Automatic annotation (TrEMBL):
It holds the Pfam family PCNA_C. PANTHER family: PROLIFERATING CELL NUCLEAR ANTIGEN (PTHR11352:SF0). Gene3D superfamilies: 3.70.10.10. This is DNA sliding clamp PCNA. One of its GO terms (cellular component) is PCNA complex. It is found in: Nucleus. InterPro entries: DNA_clamp_sf, Pr_cel_nuc_antig, Pr_cel_nuc_antig_C, Pr_cel_nuc_antig_CS, Pr_cel_nuc_antig_N. One of its GO terms (molecular function) is DNA binding. This protein is an auxiliary protein of DNA polymerase delta and is involved in the control of eukaryotic DNA replication by increasing the polymerase's processibility during elongation of the leading strand. Residues 142-269 form the Proliferating cell nuclear antigen PCNA C-terminal domain. Belongs to the PCNA family. NCBIfam families: pcna.
Amino acid sequence: MLELRLVQGSLLKKVLEAIRELVTDANFDCSGTGFSLQAMDSSHVALVALLLRSEGFEHYRCDRNLSMGMNLNNVSKMLRCAGNDDIVTIKADDGSDTVTFMFESPSQWILSHSVFFLYNFGQDKIADFEMKLMDIDSEHLGIPEAEYHAIVRMPSSEFARICKDLSSIGDTVVISVTKEGVKFSTKGDIGTANIVCRQNSTVDKPEEATIIEMKEPVTLTFALRYMNSFTKATPLSSTVSLSLSSELPIVVEYKIAEMGYIRFYLAPKIEDEEEDVKPQA
């Protein structure tokens, strides 16, 4: 038996919006410690890893490890039926080929076991949606711990703006990290662009700081279309961390409140390379 209850249901909406552009079908893995996902995009170039720890849910019951294959676009459509303030419950029985999503307005605390219905009591409502699960054959990659040459923490909105601005000029971004700051550069048919963010940890609000932890300078090149896709996770966190090391995939991480994270992995492009390099696992 699986039953997960999340008070801030809008968080699940943001999670799905953050990853559904990259991944179409994926297995959600549930265990006693949390709700997770690991999947590669259709081109097998980028990897996304999601973790929502069990203690972040108001109620979390998972009697045995369970893997649920879902089409993320269909899940996103269901979650659009929930209000931003709705409480979301996910339920699945052992051995079942379906999963049920239940949406409750905050003032309504009625439990339902029906498959599909909608109660209306003035402004209050409770809705159940049942979705068929998919049998998805996917390989769970072991991601080894790595020592990174540089880690940059900066406002997520600033990183999203930089990626968007640079993509109007070129297709790739060169990220160069030194003790003084981090530089984002691109070039295209119409010219070049360089954006430098200086290290600044003395701002009034910690989420507005740019902090650099560096063991040695690093300069790597990445495809901007993937970076822009990663920034779909911006609504989940006010800050983003970029972990870089020569010949290793970059890790773009967004913390999800106190309950988990979304991490995106993307291998650097080799100079004069015509095709994207697949991440190494």
